[in-house]
């Protein structure tokens, strides 16, 4: 009985949404529904901000964002509701791969175009996938570290500390793997410690303090995200050793608390922008909406970007102006 | 995973003065929280909101220092920022205490609500973004430079530990706290101001969590609305390992300090020897059970 009532409610809502959509005559208004995995992470918040801004600039799109609060069943329910509303385009940033695969397939069956954002799902139940690649970031970080060491010692040798994110998480696994693929080919580059700090700055500071006690000589700290790299920096600074080594992070978020600012301030030697993928998504979304003959490719990969003190200030200004 | 070749000398490093003070500093934040948590648990209560209050405090102190251009002198502005953080934190604790005392609701439920709601408040105030403090000469950086010092942090912990130990063992208030937890009905018939005692205990818990938040903000150069997740459980673990019974009435500050140090030393030793962090959690779980089992045996043998 309850289910029936809920369904009726949903239908009413959907009817409301449809009738709203049709009230604007003249220029066609597109309805884009975006189901976001959560609004809590800064990365996700930045995605929402940029997408809102870019679609607003387009002028003919009404965007609705739903926050799934890191909850699979909540996100499935939200996508189901969206399907009833029959949007012109559905964008999903899946919370977890397995949980969202079926419901996104349902959207495809209903002939709603679907863009899968940043995270892959188990079956290709989407019109197109826009993503980036953590292994590539790890690889770039490995090459940056190798080049730095060669520049410092005239050969590939040195002591590296790797501060890991949450064990078993895709980003941590591949940011490690990409770097290890490069560094493990040089026997004189040694990973002297690889503590786990769960992405948290304060924890990285504590773990790095212990590493500093145990390791008399460190050349590079490679952390799987920027906050942990900053935590390691704070630990080294406290022991007066911050000039002995460089700090390399990943994420490269904009804004005053982001990693790009940390590179501009000279705290990090480099970071790698894990792309929001939103620019590409909106570009393709607008083409799909406006041009019925446009057929997107099945997958787009957005390249990560290296941030060093040379380009940090400029990139920082850019992120401030797009926020 | 690659493991350090230098790791074998972990136990030599442990005894270095620098490392021992590292441990003290690392346990200070949770250590300070667990001092007041001992009082709360002695009244047979619990305070789950302390981690969120810590986050709120880091956020408030950093927001005041970075966003509020007062034109006042640095010491005055720093004092105002700390006072603001402590006031908000104490008020949060007092609110929980008032609801528990006046409406006689279970502390677990009230402080669980606090844990969720106060975290929300911290996130709302900061727009869910870290409030970063740089390394310049401005007032916020100066605040961090003063309070992130190892000596300052450790001194704060030691001082507060002494104050709370005296408060518990040498004052009427301390005796009342114990009496409430030991037998609330008897305490009521004896005419103790039970409501006022509870209000005070939760206010103190908020105050110390807020103070720990101020130190956290300085140490990490940021106000962080997501800081301190799980700290309430770390603090409760320290209190329980230290021999305080969750049913209230029995326990000491000295025990809590021992419990705090045990966890800190254990973490440090395992890390210095590069023990897998998953194994570390299993070992910690075992230690908590072991500590409680040993105490239980000690009591029944008496």
First CA to last CA of chain B: what distance? 48 Å
CATH class of the largest domain in chain A: Alpha Beta
Mean pLDDT across residues of chain A: 88
Domain tally of chain A: 2
Beta-strand residue percentage of chain A:
15-25%
Strand order of the largest sheet of chain B: 1-2
Q: How many runs of DSSP E, i.e. beta strands of chain A?
A: 12
Extract low-pLDDT stretches of chain A. 15-25
Instruction: Pick out the low-confidence regions of chain B.
Output: 1-8
Shape designation of chain A: elongated
Give helix % range of chain A. 40-55%
Q: Which band does the percent of strand residues of chain B land in?
A: under 5%
What is the H/E order of chain B? HHHHHEHHHHHEHHH
Q: In CATH, what is the homologous superfamily of the largest domain in chain A?
A: Response regulator
Overall CATH architecture of the largest domain in chain A: 3-Layer(aba) Sandwich
Number of domains of chain B: 1
- Describe the sheet with the most strands of chain B: 2 strands, antiparallel
- The value of Rg of chain B in angstroms is 20 Å
Q: Count of DSSP E strands of chain B?
A: 2
pLDDT average of chain B, as an integer? 90
- Determine the N-to-C terminus distance of chain A: 46 Å
